[in-house]
Amino acid sequence: MTGLIGLISATAAGAAARDRLAAAWPDRTRVYDGPVRDAVRRAFGECEQLVCFLATGAVVRLVAPLLGGKASDPGVVCVDEGGRFAVSLVGGHAGGANELAREVGEVLGAEPVVTTATDAVGVPGLDTLGLPVEGDVAGVTRALLDGEPVALEAEVPWPLPALPVTDGRDEAEEGASGDEGDYVIRLTDRAVEPAEREVVLRPPSLVVGVGASKGAPVDEVLGLVEGALRDAGLSVRSVAEVATVDAKAGEPGIVGAAERLGVPVVTYTAEELAEVTVPNPSDAPLAAVGTPSVAEAAALVRGGELLVPKRKSERADGRPAMATCAVVRRPARGRLAVVGLGPGARDLLTPRARAELRRAAVLVGLDQYVDQIRDLLRPGTRVLQSGLGAEEERARTAVAEARRGQAVALIGSGDAGVYAMASPALAEASDDIDVVGVPGVTAALAAGAILGAPLGHDHVSISLSDLHTPWEVIERRVRAAAEADLVVTFYNPRSRGRDWQLPKALAILAGHREPTTPVGVVRNASRADESSRLTDLESLDLATVDMMTVVTVGNTATREIAGRMVTPRGYRWQERDR
Asked: Are residues 254 and 285 in the same domain?
């Protein structure tokens, strides 16, 4: 049963932990009762993963006779009697036990124990990259772990995570792949056999366009596709999808061939396909489905290089062909993750941000932010850092790297979409790359949590820096916030060369609020040298405010309660009639 996690226990303590996990994951788990040996055997055959609340020695003896191979065995995690450790025992990568151990640890408060060598040193396993892999995986992985030279030969650009490799070898060595002393990771969609000391990764870079007459046999369609790939020297394992016209979405021959290839069928309207310029248009599909090309147009509709022009199937009995196909290599789409690091404290860095930092092959960021998270990067991550004032340059660099097919992380403090790097990066980016936003804890939220609950009702954030925004615009926004009685958080409130904007903004607010209106001042929220104080509009000491500070001014309802800044939600709570 795909995705099912079997839960097995032998004692009352184990059953209690088991039940906690079952309650947390009701749709993912099944409890196996009865004699432990029988329960393990049944779960091993029915589930994708197992969590055994037993000693590791006992589980080793129970599962040993059942093991078949890395590719087929379920992942097995052991949790000790005291619930202190979640041990990845079998199928760390292929069975997903390493990640399962981490998930179990989060639910039960247990420490995940992962002994896989690549995980221990932060090198991604070559069999965990989501790509078909062939060749000497163990040997090349050992070379990566031992720090031996390993060349990455990317014949097709693809957004891989960081690997401690070199970018190919010298020209004199070209063509010597697998020679003695060389370790190679080859990224290719060509039908090549791995040489000695070589791993071949197959990116899903090929699209097969298919046209078929009604009732075309699966074997005819599949034979045509496999023959086209074989004759062009291309690997069937790099096929990403079968594309066709929507009128053929349910054609059994096309659907069946795609199923046997293990890829989805993607369809386009006849109007979309008719707009694609192809080398071999035909009147037959135009009359049948409304477009002069199906196979070539469907393969080319999203761009790419036509590797195999339209070809027809051949039938042994000499009857007319019932299928056509074409093959296109689509350009890799790079990946840009815009990552918010939060206000600075490591425990306020989100798990999603951590995952994106480890997924990136290229990191772009302000030098001081890079220093904050350098220890979280995988070995081999290329770091492109710069100083203050180079925001647009960093945005252009990150987008350019993504356009080269790289997996890129562009970092910013707080939330990268709030006065940070997301805006300039997305203004630079077009639809030729994939962009992922990773939210972070903003300075306003971090400061608000320290002060109490100043943002309990409607609020606004305003930057007082007029380096990129004219002061007239900033002043108009401050006046609007004052008149609307909004709580205001000021970013970039004051610097050595820009010290008049904050008193001007506070004077505007003072025209609409009492002098006793609470004001919170937080410097370096969540960092080691954090400081905060609660004052009011009349008493605020401007000399204590700098660029590392956020200033939060309450609205007319904000109060100081027990030394905390609180803005009521503004609702009248009433008991329901009973």
From this structure: yes
Rounded distance between C-alpha atoms, residue 394 and residue 400, angstroms: 10
Q: What is the mean pLDDT of the chain?
A: 91
Per-residue pLDDT band for 175 (boundaries 50, 70, 90) equals very low
What ranges in 281-332 are assigned the alpha helix state H? 283-289, 295-300
Integer Cα distance of 202 and 187 in angstroms? 6
Residue 484 lies in a domain: yes
Task: Give residue 577's pLDDT.
Answer: 42
Q: Beta-carbon neighbour count of residue 417 at 10 Å?
A: 19
Q: Which residue among 265, 295, 329 closes a domain?
A: 329
* Containing structural domain, residue 397: 335-441
* Phi, psi dihedral angles at 117 (to 5 degrees): -60, -45
pLDDT digits (tens, 9 = 90+) for 242-287: 999 999 999 999 999 999 999 999 999 999 999 999 999 999 999 9
Is residue 574 in a domain? no
Q: Are 92 and 75 in contact (CB under 8 A)?
A: yes
Residues 6+ apart with CB under 8 A from 496: none
What does the pLDDT look like over 512-531, one tens digit per residue?
999 999 999 999 999 999 99
The sheet with strand 85-90 has its strands ordered as 29-31, 5-9, 49-53, 75-79, 85-90, 111-113
293's tokens: 């090309």
pTM as predicted = 0.78
R_g of the chain, CA atoms, integer Å? 30
What gap in Å lies between CA 550 and CA 448, rounded to an integer? 10
Q: Tell me the pLDDT tens digit for each residue of 82-107.
A: 899 999 999 988 888 998 999 999 99
Q: Give the chain's count of helices (H) and strands (E).
A: 18, 28
Work out whether the CA dihedral 340, 343, 345, 350 comes out positive or negative. Answer: negative
- pLDDT value for 93: 83
Looking at the structure, tell me whether residues 61 and 29 fall in a common domain: yes
**What pairing do the DSSP bridges indicate for beta strands 382-386 and 305-312?**
unpaired
The pLDDT of residue 180 is 45
CATH number where 463 lies: 3.30.950.10
CATH number at residue 413: 3.40.1010.10
